[in-house]
Write a structure and sequence with these properties.
This protein has about 190 residues and is an all-alpha fold. The chain contains 7 helices and no strands.
Length: about 190
């Protein structure tokens, strides 16, 4: 016959799995919105952003990662998603350039109204200006503005001091404003 301890073992294992599952669910609910915003701003695609977030959680779960607290797990996931999104964006840019070279087609723009056109042009100008920033400045600005993270969190993700993050964000905003004002001046001169 089995001892009481041996009979309780399956129940204890089930309870441990339930606790682990609940912790994973809480982490998912806490981190997913931030991960999605960061990856969406880098990739520009909702579908890709969602896939990258799911992939990061899958890696976390598959590797059975253990962190001292949920915040550390969140920062690890943000780093994974940021790197995956940057790789995705670079790959898509290479594909786009290869496609243009192969077919020599100009990008088509659809006009559905003056307001939508102006909004789209503005978004494209900001996106182009953002892409012209050096990667270290672009990354902190994306994490700050689109990821809605504070300086301390960004510093932990990038492995730099909080003061360095503040300087980079300030410089990124200055450069972005300069690029946008130069684009606006060029656009007015064309008219």
């Amino acid at each position: 016959m089995f001892s009481d301890e041996e009979q309780d073992a399956p129940r204890k294992i089930g309870a441990a799995r339930e606790t682990q599952s609940g912790a994973f669910q809480r982490l998912y609910e806490m981190a997913f919105p931030i991960l999605f915003r960061v990856s969406y701003r880098i990739t520009g695609s909702e579908e890709a952003a969602e896939d990258l977030c799911q992939e990061a959680f899958f890696r976390y779960y598959e590797k059975n990662m253990v962190f001292p607290n949920p915040e550390e797990a969140k920062y690890w996931l943000i780093r994974v998603v940021k790197n995956s999104a940057l790789n995705y964006a670079k790959r898509k840019e290479r594909e786009r350039k290869a496609y243009q070279r192969a077919f020599r087609e100009a990008e088509k723009k659809t006009e559905t109204g003056e307001g939508l056109l102006i909004k789209e042009e503005t978004r494209l100008e900001v996106e182009e200006a953002l892409n012209k920033l050096p990667e270290n400045l672009r990354t902190v600005l994306v994490l700050k503005e689109y990821g809605e993270l504070n300086y301390k969190e960004i510093g932990r993700i990038l492995g730099i001091r909080e003061g360095n993050v503040k300087v980079r964000v300030f410089r990124a905003r200055e450069r972005l404003a300069g690029l946008l004002s130069a684009t606006g001046a060029a656009g007015q001169a064309d008219e």
